[in-house]
Automatic annotation (TrEMBL):
Biased composition, class Polar residues, residue ranges: 1-10, 73-85
Keyword set includes S-adenosyl-L-methionine: yes
Composition bias type Low complexity, residue spans: 11-32
PROSITE patterns xrefs: SET (PS50280)
PANTHER family: HISTONE-LYSINE N-TRIMETHYLTRANSFERASE SMYD5, SET AND MYND DOMAIN-CONTAINING PROTEIN 5
GO biological process, any: methylation
Stated name of the protein: Histone-lysine N-methyltransferase SET5
Region described as Disordered: spans on this chain: 1-36, 73-99
InterPro entries: SET_dom, SET_dom_sf
Domain called SET: residue spans: 358-679
Keywords of the record: Methyltransferase, S-adenosyl-L-methionine, Transferase
Length: 739
């Protein structure tokens, strides 16, 4: 889904022409800056000394060449030792794209020790468990980059993993005493790149560049007015100098390093388009730097290759444009994050069930290998992880009964006129759906409205206080480079928009009870879809963009009053973990409602919504579900009857709201797990089910049963099929029949 609003604030795109115009006519120019006076836009954080929004975010290569790829320190002691500074000593150089690797890697293929990066990538993908065992690879530290698999394998087989981990810990410790020294972020960025976590590498390079610009007074972070002076003091102390000239030279050197790291990190994230934009910015200031020039050429070559492959595959021009402007990374846990932050505890489960309906309860689901099942069946102590969860009927439920109506504050839309839709639940505020007398307007600002006293009180006493008076329109209006659709849509900007609302809720609750953002009940109940811990490289990578995943959440947190440089909890790995959870639990819908005017009814704008419904998200998947669902976002106001929005208490949900209504698709026995379909339409029919319009429910079940029996291909259904067949075999054996 794409979200957009009318442009009102400057974008962060470069004002120069498309980086690849000489190559592809389908590439468009990047949005130009718009001049604003400092302080004029309340939501603007990054302003340059001349009042123009600054270009932020550059980076450097991970392994650009074999000679300078690993610059851990100036120490000269042997591998694995540490210098007097606490940093690891110099480590062996990693491989370039085609260079000699460790013999044990070569032995897997042949006696030839010259193996290309593509060969090693193929080995990792095809023989995960065997490779991990033979090379003693730690799958948890294989990184998020699908580009630097070779280097990640080399880091581990060469004995560099532990020194790098130790150095990373030391650098994080340094940050506690000097959080405004950009050189530390450059060092951490370099280590993250060597470890294969190029998305985190990019984020640390971005922070370094923010600090450099503030230290040079070329840009200002208005939420931290004393930041520039704090940065200069930090460098004065580290260099033991009073010379402002030396400090300025040091900041310029750091800027070059950070720019190089950012570009190489973007390359590692397959974000070639982003990398080309940032390369242009870096080369304006360092036009003759050979490493930047080399990186720009590598990024351009990779961009061309990706473009050509998509065209050869027959993709449409719009798809080619969007796909080549998005990077990809593996979805993995960050191994340095405390494991307990990923747990859903008995206390959380009790809180969830206090909110849940009387028809069902949430409890642990047992599946997996016999060993895993045995481990999951044991009673969890307080503070321990309760494991996977599901929803189970607490009574017999009849077909067509409403099981759950799940309302949420985590609903966003691309509505252009915010006053037509409730800021709390997204319900329409237009007549005839709501009387004008029923609209609640806050006294503090004129930018939002609410459909009820309940929505009003929840917002004003909670999240709205952090958002009131702030200007977040830049999230909607900052164009996703190259991804604007036919209707002016703004790419996949829903993630940072959702992140803004979620962080406002989390931070408002922190005033009452301080907690880590990953342990807030709304965040902790969500689970990401991580691969098994023993998988070296997941089968597929996920879309990732520099602006959406790094620049936007960084600015959002600054705008909400978080000092991202001193906070130990609002880090990039925490941000990305929240993104993984949101993506895995969001549902999308759209609605188009007619409304009344003095001259008669008028068809309203179509709005797209993305919602994270906090209880609905516990439903597990089945291609033969026993529960259907639909949202309060009405799909067709001409044909949908009011029963679509009616709850079990006879109430009617407000049209357009972010509610989800879940209904029994058949009779359900007490204790049975309630499941929905994650694919196809809300009625659980899968993609092919679209052929069955007008067919009776029994007919649809019969058709789906055949499809299911033949195998829909999903792992869940394969497991269900196996269980069904085993039960059938046992029943047949008991009856004396042959199977």
């Amino acid at each position: 889904m794409h979200l957009i609003n009318d442009p009102q604030t400057p974008t962060y795109a470069d004002s120069s022409s498309d980086a690849s115009t000489s190559y592809s006519s389908t590439s468009s120019t990047v949005s130009s800056h718009q001049n604003v006076t400092q302080g004029q836009q309340k939501g603007m954080f990054y302003t340059s000394s001349n009042g123009v929004v600054s270009d932020l975010g550059l980076g450097s290569p991970i392994w650009s060449n074999a000679e300078e790829a690993v610059k851990l320190s100036n120490a000269t002691s042997s591998k694995g030792e540490t210098s007097v500074t606490g940093r690891p000593a110099a480590l062996p150089s990693p491989p370039s794209s085609e260079c000699e690797l460790e013999p044990e890697i070569a032995d897997i293929v042949s006696q030839d020790t010259n193996i290309t990066a593509e060969t090693v990538k193929s080995i990792v993908e095809q023989t995960d468990k065997d490779l991990a065992k033979r090379l003693n690879l730690d799958s948890e530290w294989m990184g998020t980059s699908q580009v630097y698999i070779t280097q990640t394998v080399y880091t581990q087989t060469s004995g560099n993993l532990e020194p790098l981990k130790n150095w990373r810990k030391a650098l994080l410790n340094d940050l506690t005493s000097s959080p405004y020294d950009p050189s530390i972020y450059v060092d951490i960025s370099s280590v993250d790149c060597k470890l294969g976590y190029t998305d985190i590498c990019v984020a640390h390079a971005h922070k370094a560049l923010l600090l450099v610009q503030a230290g040079l007074n070329t840009a200002q972070i208005t939420s931290l007015p004393s930041l520039g002076n704090a940065i200069r003091i930090a460098i004065h102390l580290r260099l033991r100098t009073r010379s402002s000239i030396i400090v300025a030279e040091e900041l310029q050197n750091i800027k070059l390093e950070a720019s190089q790291l950012l570009l190489n990190g973007l390359k590692g994230c397959s974000a070639y388009w982003d990398g080309l934009q940032e390369a242009k910015k870096a080369l304006k200031e360092f036009p003759d730097n050979p490493e930047l020039l080399e990186l720009k050429q590598e990024l351009l070559d990779e961009f061309k290759t990706a473009h050509q492959e998509l065209v050869a595959a027959g993709c449409k021009a719009k798809s080619v444009r969007e796909l080549t402007r998005s990077g990809k990374i593996f979805q993995k846990r960050y191994p340095w994050v405390d494991e307990s932050l990923f747990w859903r505890t008995p206390a959380l489960l009790r809180e969830v069930n206090r909110e849940f309906s009387q028809n069902a309860t949430v409890r642990s689901v047992v599946w997996g290998t016999p060993e895993e099942i045995a481990a999951m069946k044991k009673v969890r102590r307080e503070g321990e992880d309760v494991g996977p969860l599901g929803i189970f009927a607490t009574r017999d439920i009849k077909e067509d009964e409403v099981i759950l109506v799940d309302r949420t504050l985590l609903g966003i839309s691309d509505a252009r006129n915010k006053l037509d839709w409730c800021d709390g639940c997204n319900a329409s505020l237009r007549a005839p759906y709501l009387s004008p007398k029923g609209v609640r307007l806050p006294a503090c600002c004129k930018s939002v409205a609410y459909c009820s006293q309940e929505c009003y009180d929840t917002a004003i006493n909670g999240y709205h206080s952090l958002l009131c008076g702030q200007d977040f329109d830049w999230i909607y209006t900052s164009s996703l480079v190259g991804a604007s659709g036919e209707n002016g849509e703004c790419g996949s900007r829903w993630r940072p928009i959702m992140f803004t609302r979620l962080m406002a809720i989390v931070l408002s609750d922190m005033k009452l009870s301080y907690t880590h953002p990953l342990q807030h009940p709304l965040v902790a109940r969500m689970a990401a879809n991580y691969p098994r811990p023993d998988i070296l490289t997941p089968e597929s990578a996920h879309h990732w963009q520099y602006f959406e995943n790094v620049v936007a959440p960084t600015q959002i947190l600054l705008q909400l009053g978080i000092d991202i440089f001193t906070s130990p909890i609002f880090t990039q790995e925490v941000i990305q973990t929240i993104y993984w959870r949101i993506e895995n639990n969001a549902n999308m819908s759209s609605t188009e409602l007619a409304y009344s005017t003095p001259t008669g009814p008028v068809q309203g704008e179509k709005i797209n919504q993305v919602n994270v419904n906090q209880n609905y998200l516990f439903f597990n998947h089945s291609c033969m579900p026993n529960v259907t669902w639909h949202g309060g976002a009405v799909p067709d106001s001409h044909e949908t009857e009011i029963s679509w929005l009616r709850t079990s208490q006879g109430e009617v949900e407000k049209p357009g709201s972010s509610s989800v209504i879940c209904i029994a698709d058949r009779d359900i026995k007490k204790g049975e797990e309630l499941k929905i379909s994650y694919v196809g339409d809300p009625l659980g029919l899968g993609e092919e089910g679209g052929q069955l319009e007008g067919v009776s429910r029994a007919g649809k079940r019969e058709w789906m049963g055949k499809w299911f029996d033949n195998g829909c291909g999903c792992e869940v259904c394969e497991k269900e099929n196996e269980d069904v067949r085993k039960k059938a075999a046992v029943a047949a054996a008991a009856a004396g029949a042959s199977v």
